[in-house]
């Protein structure tokens, strides 16, 4: 075994920078978009100060920014927008409702059907909307049937990853691998070119998720099943000579630390006064307030007022005349990718003013926060957070229409959007145009995104919120690193090292080893980064061995999609982790065997189909 000599200084620098990128991408405290921009700037500045020429052609610094116009990135962004149209219109809601009904008949078969259906849909639509669709179905069913949601949420999330591996548009990772391979001179992959081995391996993985995974997961119930304090609406009367007599409304808010939620101000029965901060309060005025019983009594004491239940203004609150929560509804809402709630607080968002609902609790990553409104309102929200809210049943339609969060109760009898069939038809047309070869996926997806906007399935605000800066920057940076590795000879060097270390191993063994390496990296760093960095290495290995590069490229694609072992490996893992309150060890317990199963199956199937 002879290890090749190190390449030129530029290649060494690029390999070191690639190693730094892998370290930065695995740091939780540093945002992924920041890490990506750091690497991109280092590449551009470094090659501008220290020029590099190969075969008479100079590698310009501006070449590293060409990834912003890369066909694969255009396709990824367009599919994000088109997928947001499906989510925004609720086009897949009937699927979720049908699953929920069938689940009550046969839970075991329903889990299998959910896994297969989730995988099938994810083959054509980004799996984030699919997970967002199925999460409320499974959570709602678990609460109604008194079964542990933790046993089914993770298998469902992993099934969408299995399905996403089967087509070129299933995940952004697939699009990137196909795009980079095409740039390196390989024949473009059609949509279903590798569906055979991917589907067979996926079915083996689905069987594990159906029969084994639920037995490995904890049987605990998630916090949403716990009893929660209720919100009540009451009238707080201003008393003569009290601290509010003759004072502006703003003083009532100041005295309660802006914690009091005032629905309206009544001056005499049915006579409402506009809620202005400087309106002067008079004895007998009623502040219509919504909160927990404890907080309402606290406001009564602070403001020296008198508390009455709604409809019982002649008799103050007492044990014989308690508060009433008639026609109130408790619901769960989730913060999803692209939501305006991400990065803000409920206090800043003004949830009550927008929807008429008040937050009772927050559920995040297995942590149980105090059900105290002060804490919930001040917590900076992030993707995957689930909020328990309460408000009038008549306001459920307001929650449903709001595009800043997802209402997590698919069993509610709420109307579908009239644009849903149109959005579904547009997405099917995008898939058909690409699958038949009429248009490339970048063009068909862009046309589909435009149609979503022109037909009113999406607004421009919805479209821009669907785009992820993190995904865009990691893709561009990964493409830039791939370009630098190829042009400087770094990829060829790594391929030579891999071949040398493999010794006399057969091509099938080398392919299997490459796939396992990619599977390990994708659970530590971004799967997109793993895919784009691994693709040129795979092509270099194949060419040095004198073999067709396609199976080695697919080994990278399959390996980079094995994001099962850690919650940070893929964004849907984080959504599932937050909703199911899983620990890191739960992912290791279920995900590592799944990685090994998929690696073993793919190691057999890829050589069988392609060698």
Automatic annotation (TrEMBL):
Protein name: SLC13 family permease
Transmembrane portions of the chain: 36-52, 64-87, 107-139, 160-182, 194-213, 422-455, 467-486, 493-518, 551-570, 590-610
Record membrane topology: Multi-pass membrane protein
Record keywords, A-Z: Membrane, Repeat, Transmembrane, Transmembrane helix, Transport
PANTHER family in alphabetical order: BASIC AMINO ACID ANTIPORTER YFCC-RELATED
Locations listed in the record: Membrane
Lineage: Bacteria, Pseudomonadati, Thermodesulfobacteriota, Desulfovibrionia, Desulfovibrionales
Domain of life: Bacteria
Keyword Repeat applies: yes
Domain RCK C-terminal residues, every copy: 219-305, 318-405
Broad class of where this protein is predominantly found: membrane
InterPro entries reported in the protein's UniProt record: Cit_transptr-like_dom, DASS-Related_Transporters, RCK_C, RCK_C_sf
Originating organism: Pseudodesulfovibrio methanolicus
């Amino acid at each position: 075994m002879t290890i090749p000599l190190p390449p030129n200084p530029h290649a060494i620098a690029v390999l070191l920078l690639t190693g730094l990128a892998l370290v930065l991408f695995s740091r939780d405290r540093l945002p992924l978009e920041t890490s990506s921009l750091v690497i991109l700037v280092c590449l551009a500045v470094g090659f501008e100060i220290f020029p590099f020429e190969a075969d008479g052609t100079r590698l310009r610094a501006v070449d590293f920014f060409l990834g912003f116009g890369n066909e694969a990135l255009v396709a990824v962004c367009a599919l994000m927008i088109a997928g947001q149209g499906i989510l925004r219109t609720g086009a897949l809601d009937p699927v979720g409702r049908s699953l929920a009904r069938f689940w009550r008949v046969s839970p075991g078969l329903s889990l299998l059907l959910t896994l297969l259906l989730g995988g099938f849909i994810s083959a054509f639509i980004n799996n984030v909307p699919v997970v967002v669709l199925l999460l409320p179905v499974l959570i709602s069913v678990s609460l109604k049937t008194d079964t542990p949601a933790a046993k089914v949420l993770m298998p469902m999330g992993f099934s969408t990853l299995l399905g996403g591996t089967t087509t070129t548009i299933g995940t952004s990772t697939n699009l990137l691998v196909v795009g980079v391979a095409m740039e390196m001179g390989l024949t473009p992959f059609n949509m279903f070119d590798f569906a055979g081995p991917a589907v067979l391996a996926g079915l083996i993985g689905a069987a594990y998720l159906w029969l084994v995974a639920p037995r490995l997961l904890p049987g605990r119930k998630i916090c949403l099943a716990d009893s929660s304090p209720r919100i009540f609406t009451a009238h707080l009367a201003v008393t003569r000579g009290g601290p509010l007599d003759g004072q502006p409304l703003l003083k009532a808010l100041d005295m309660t630390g802006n914690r009091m939620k005032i629905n309206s101000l009544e001056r005499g029965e049915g006579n409402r006064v506009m809620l202005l901060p400087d309106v002067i309060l008079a004895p007998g005025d009623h502040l219509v307030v919504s909160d927990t019983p404890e907080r309402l009594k606290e406001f009564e004491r602070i403001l020296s007022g008198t508390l009455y239940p709604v409809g019982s203004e002649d008799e103050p609150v007492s044990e014989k005349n308690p508060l009433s929560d008639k026609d109130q509804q408790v619901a769960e809402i989730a913060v999803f990718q692209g939501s305006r709630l991400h990065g803000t607080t409920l206090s800043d968002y003004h949830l009550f003013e927008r929807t008429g609902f008040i937050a009772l609790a927050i559920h995040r990553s297995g942590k149980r926060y105090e059900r105290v409104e002060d804490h919930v309102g001040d917590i900076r929200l992030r993707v995957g957070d689930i909020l328990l809210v309460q408000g009038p049943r008549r306001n459920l339609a307001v929650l449903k229409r709001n595009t800043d969060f997802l209402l997590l109760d698919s069993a509610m009898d709420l109307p579908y959007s009239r644009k849903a069939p149109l959005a579904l038809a547009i997405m099917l047309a995008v898939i058909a145009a690409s699958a038949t070869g009429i248009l490339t996926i970048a063009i068909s997806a862009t046309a589909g995104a435009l149609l979503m906007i022109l037909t009113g399935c999406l607004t421009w605000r919805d479209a821009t919120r669907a785009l992820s800066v993190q995904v865009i920057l990691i893709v561009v940076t990964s493409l830039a690193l791939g370009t630098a590795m190829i042009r400087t000879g770094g990829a060829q060097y790594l391929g030579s090292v891999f071949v040398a270390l493999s010794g006399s191993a057969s091509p099938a063994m080398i392919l299997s080893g490459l796939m396992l390496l990619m599977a390990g990296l994708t659970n530590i760093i971004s799967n997109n980064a793993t895919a784009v960095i691994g693709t040129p290495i795979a092509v270099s290995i194949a060419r040095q061995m004198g073999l067709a590069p396609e199976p080695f490229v697919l080994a990278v694609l399959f390996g980079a999609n094995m994001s099962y072992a850690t919650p940070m490996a893929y964004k849907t893992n984080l959504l599932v982790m937050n909703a199911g309150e899983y620990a890191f060890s739960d992912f290791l317990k279920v995900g590592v065997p799944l990685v090994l199963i998929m690696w073993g199956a793919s190691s057999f199937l890829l050589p069988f189909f392609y060698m």
